[in-house]
Structures are given as C-alpha cells and as structure tokens.
Amino acid sequence: MGMSAEAHGAGGAAALDQPYDGVSRTFHWLVVALVLMQITLALVLPSLLPKSAEDSITAWHLGTGSTILLVMLLRLGWRLAHPMPPAPSDLSAGLRILARTTHWAFYLVLIVLPLLGWMAANAYGATPRLLGLIPLPRLVAPDQAFGEAIGVVHKTFATVLLGLIVMHVSGALYHAFVKRDGVIRRMIPG
Ligand code: HEM
Ligand code: HEM
C-alpha cells in the first residue's frame, strides 16, 4: 500500500490517501490527551479545587509533565526515522512552511517546557516522578529564587504552547471544513 501511494509521486490528491503510520498517530493522540490533562491540572483544577488539594495537583502535574517529556523523546526518535506523508500539492508555500514550523515547534516546546518544569521543581526542593512512580534525578540544587525565575520561563513556554495549539487546531479545522481535503484523515486512527 505504501508502495502504490509512493508510485503516485509527491503531492497531489492520490498522495493524500497516504496516512501517517499507526505509531505516529498513536503518539499524536496520546500527547494530545496528556497535554489536555496537563493544562487542566495547571490552569483549571487549582481554581476549582480547595487549597488542601494543592499538593496532589502538583504531584500530578509533575508526573504527567515528565511523562510528556518521555513520550516526546520517543516520538522524536520515531519521527526522525519516519518522514511524514507529502503535503497537498495545492497548498501554498507559505501555509506549508507555517504548518511545518508549527509541527517542529511542538517538538521543541514539548521537550523544553517539561525540562524547565523539572528544573523549577528541583529548585523548589521537589522530586518529579516519571509516570508518578519513578523519581527523576536532580538537575539543579534547591534555590527558591532560581525556582521562581525558571518558573516564569516555564509559564512563558506554556503560553507559547497554547498559541501553537490554537494555530494548529485552526489549521486542522481549515483543512476539514474549508478545503475539505484529506489532511485530517491522515491523522485520524483507523
Ligand atoms: C507539557 C508540559 C507542561 C505544561 C503545559 C505545563 C504548564 C504549566 C503552567 C501553565 C504552569 C503555571 C501554573 C500557575 O501557576 O498558574 C506551570 C507551573 C509549574 N510547572 Fe508545569 N507544565 C508542564 C510540565 C511540567 C513538568 C514536567 C514539571 C516538572 C517536572 C513542571 C513543573 C511545574 C512547576 C514546579 C510549576 C510552578 C512554577 C512556579 O509557579 O514558579 N511542569 N506549568
Ligand atoms: C495538544 C494538542 C496537539 C498537539 C501538541 C499536536 C501536535 C502535532 C504534531 C507535532 C504534528 C506533526 C506530526 C509529525 O509530522 O510528526 C501534528 C499533526 C497533525 N495534527 Fe496535531 N496536535 C494537537 C492537536 C490536534 C487536534 C485537536 C487535531 C484535529 C482537530 C489535530 C490534527 C492534526 C493533523 C490532521 C495532523 C497532520 C497534519 C499534516 O498531515 O500535515 N491535532 N500534530
């Protein structure tokens, strides 16, 4: 199947029948679920739940966040070995570059952001646990002021991530409802 899709050459309607491979699609939707959970933990729950729940929300934030780091490193390795299917040939060069830049920015931000969080957590004297279980080594010594500084950068990166998500989902909806091409189907499982 991959062979016949390639035989149609790069771009064009036929090439759009070629989906992302199953592993890439699984990574994509797993990371979407984890990121939605992480944003809920960081922004929604602290304002809904009582102050007494703060410690467990934080533990979850560190556990989910470090899981995102692990999954993104595995995903990056997979991605470097498996190129994405070709873009629609009628997509303007500008939009193509915008989409690719957004994709690679996701990889960058979803690796740097958890690393900054890990450093901030250490500086605050906390130990993040991978999957909520395995304690991670200490990257920086406890230092409240440094923690607050890194925390600001961490929150800035989280804002950049929200911006990327808005751009990316707008792009996905544009393909689904305006262009009505096959781009969405490439990432939908099954
Ligand atoms: C995709 C992953 C992540 C996202 C989207 C994210 C998002 C956020 C956001 C929005 C805040 C601000 C909450 C607030 O004070 O209003 C925050 C704070 C924080 N996050 Fe994350 N985070 C991620 C990963 C991590 C990881 C992996 C760790 C640690 C291992 C971590 C540790 C922290 C810490 C310690 C703070 C408090 C910073 C401070 O107030 O100075 N985060 N995070
Ligand atoms: C947290 C939210 C999301 C993140 C971090 C994210 C991240 C990514 C990344 C990194 C890629 C590029 C994959 C690669 O080439 O390695 C991608 C592709 C894609 N995403 Fe998302 N995504 C998110 C949400 C969504 C949502 C909600 C939709 C659907 C409405 C969606 C639809 C797609 C589609 C259709 C592609 C393939 C684009 C193409 O073929 O050029 N994504 N996403």
UniProtKB/TrEMBL annotation:
Topology term for the membrane: Multi-pass membrane protein
GO terms (BP aspect): respiratory electron transport chain
Keywords: Cell membrane, Electron transport, Heme, Iron, Membrane, Metal-binding, Transmembrane, Transmembrane helix, Transport
Entry's transmembrane regions: 27-45, 57-78, 104-121, 157-177
Record GO cellular component, one term: plasma membrane
Record domain Cytochrome b561 bacterial/Ni-hydrogenase: where: 20-190
Gene Ontology molecular function: electron transfer activity; heme binding; metal ion binding
Organism whose genome encodes this protein: Muricoccus nepalensis
Entries under Pfam families matching the protein: Ni_hydr_CYTB (PF01292)
Protein name per Swiss-Prot or TrEMBL: Cytochrome b
Upper lineage: Bacteria, Pseudomonadati, Pseudomonadota, Alphaproteobacteria, Acetobacterales
